[in-house]
Each structure stands twice: as structure tokens, then as C-alpha cells.
Amino acid sequence: MRILAIESSCDETAAAIVRDGKEVLSNIIATQIPVHQIYGGVVPEIASRCHLQNIAPTVEQALQQANMTFDDVDAIAVTAGPGLVGALLVGVSYAKALAYALQKPLIGVHHWQGHLCALQLEHDIEYPYLALVASGSHSGIVEVLSDNDFRLLGASLDDAAGEAFDKISRALGLGYPGGPAIQKAALLGDAAKISFPIAKTHDTYDFSFSGLKSAVLNHINQRRMRGEELTEQDKYDLAASAQEAICTALAEKTLLAAQTKGYSVIGVVGGVAANQLLRQKLADNKNGIRVIYPSPIFCTDNAAMIGAAAYNYYQRGEFADMSLNADPRKPIYFV
Ligand code: KG4
Ligand code: ZN
After folding, report:
1. How many whole angstroms from 162 Cα to the centroid of ligand 1?
2. CATH fold of 126-293
3. Beta sheet of 106-110, edge-to-edge order
4. Which residues lie across from 330 on neighbouring strands?
5. β-pairing verdict for 129-134 and 139-146
6. What is the pLDDT of residues 171-190, one digit of tens each?
7. How far is residue 27 from each of residues 7, 111, 215, measured CA to CA in Å?
8. Whose CA is nearest to atom 23 of ligand 1?
9. Domain spanning 2-117+298-316: which superfamily?
10. 22 CA distance to ligand 1 centroid (A)?
11. Domain boundaries of the chain, sorted by first residue
12. Tens of pLDDT, residues 136-180
């Protein structure tokens, strides 16, 4: 069962061939990061135009790398949402046209489910397990009861964790994407220099990161009002302190949820799962909880994870038809 999967929800045009939901035969990512970097973040209209340029060659490369032709493909899968509507539309329209022309089944995948299924590419997943989904657009602690049943324990009330990294990095002039930039700057900084508080939320497992972004901005503004510009070392210290606060909130709440609900395995997915400090904090648990991650290339947006999720959709008989549309706010149903 070889699925051609396409992902275009944000700033990566990606195509992959995945066999039986597990074996990655090819995984091509045409990144737009350099294009958006000069603006300090993703510009949706530019993203759509880049997807248009990149999608056909990316799919062709994915086929080539897998040594396949369109005839060898058993189904076409595509991220249908959530994401940037114009960006999603490019992938969805392309996948629909392919499925129609080739008369192959079409599968519309939820982006979040794709991130979770990145785990199944490299691990033998046993349900239920606890997941931390932390990307540029979502942060949540989820009980994964089966490949299609989820119970949401908590989510961010404002900015997603990756968004917080991105906004803080922008404020410090460290560049886009913020996560890797802050992680790198933090290596030279002192995390104990500034103590940013972890936001208290009404519901234990919710997160809130917008206050942290404001605290960093306030710090910068106060320095400016005193006529002081930030030195490079100040930026490194702020990056390290902010990273410490974000990772502590994510790790403490996720470990508490695992302990309280009795989970012995935590799966961490999404771009922020690539963060080394987060990994270290989760690994430092005293309860023998095993923490699993996708390889870094499968943490950030990619199409292999969409192909993995699509295999589960296929097994469930969950197909899309020509009415499939890009849904920027595509809901996920929680039990
Ligand atoms: O999963 P992803 O590629 O796209 C979304 O679905 O949003 O996640 C991108 C996010 C960005 O906000 C980026 O700053 C963050 O993941 N990210 C990281 C790291 N690498 C990427 N955050 C922290 N540490 C990293 N090493
Ligand atoms: Zn994503």
C-alpha cells in the first residue's frame, strides 16, 4: 500500500511516498524559510505563490526518489487543514486533480493527526498513550486512545508554544523560525539571568504563553527607556530565560498529566518537539516515563507524517471525494 502524500499547510511544500503507514520511501521538503526570513515570519500570500511553483517538481522528486511512477501509487493523501487557507488550497487542488486524473482514492488528512502519526514512522505505537502536540499553531496535551480517538486535556489559551518562540525571537532580532534561533542563542546565554514566571491557568493542563512574550517586550522597552540598547549577551540571556520558561511549562504540565492519568509513555510531536531543552526536561522525570519523539525531520512539517496518518484513514475506509476543500480551521473531534 503506497500512498503519495502532500503537505502545504504553511511554509513547506512537501511530498512523500509512504508504504503501509510506516516505511518512508521518499520524503521531499521544499522549504520557503529563506523567502519568509526577511519578513521575520510567514507571509501567507507569498507562501501560496511558492507552493504553486514548488508543488509539481516536489511531487515528481518524491516519485523519482521512490523509484515509482504515478501508476504505482495506491492512494493520494493531502493535508486538508488546519493551516493557511491559500497554502492549503494549493495542495488540496493539486491532490484532487491527481486523484481525478489517475482515478485513485483521495484522503484528506487533519494536520494535527499527521503530526501525531509521525511517531508511527519510527516507533511501534501502543494505544493509549499521552501526547504533547507543540507546533507553531497548536499546543495541547492529548490522550491518544486509538489512531482516531483523542481526549484533549489542555491547550494553549493564546499563543502556541512555537508561536511564542517565533514572536520572542522576532522581538530579539534573532530571526525566523524562532525555535531553532532561540535554541542556538540560548546556548550562549544564562537561563537564570531573568526569571520569567510560568503562567497560572484555571485548568491545570492549559498553557498561556502570550504573557511571556509581553514580559520579554517589557524588558526590552524598559532597557530602551533607560537609554540602553540590548547587547548580544543580553539577547542570549533573554533567549535562554524565555526558552527555560516555555520548556518548563510544557514539560511540567505534560509530566503531571502522565503521572496523574497513569501513562507510562509520552509522545511529543510538532516543530517544538525538536527542542533539546524540552527533551532534556522531559527525560529528567523520576517516574520512569518513556518519552518518544519523531526524528527532527519528522517533527517539523513534512509529508511523510501525512502519508502515515493517511494509511490509518485508508484502513478505516475514510476517503474524501471531489468536494474536499481546504479548511483553515478544520476541527478535530475529541471524545
Ligand atoms: O510543526 P511545525 O513545522 O509547523 C506547524 O504546524 O506550525 O512547527 C513550526 C514551529 C515554529 O514555530 C518553530 O519556531 C518551532 O516549530 N520549532 C522549534 C524548534 N524547531 C522548530 N521550537 C523550539 N525549538 C526548536 N528546535
Ligand atoms: Zn505542523
Report:
1. 5
2. Nucleotidyltransferase; domain 5 (3.30.420)
3. 23-31, 12-19, 2-7, 75-81, 106-110
4. none
5. antiparallel
6. 999 999 999 999 999 999 99
7. 11, 17, 39
8. 179
9. ATPase, nucleotide binding domain (3.30.420.40)
10. 23
11. 2-117+298-316, 126-293
12. 998 999 999 999 999 999 999 999 999 999 999 999 999 999 999
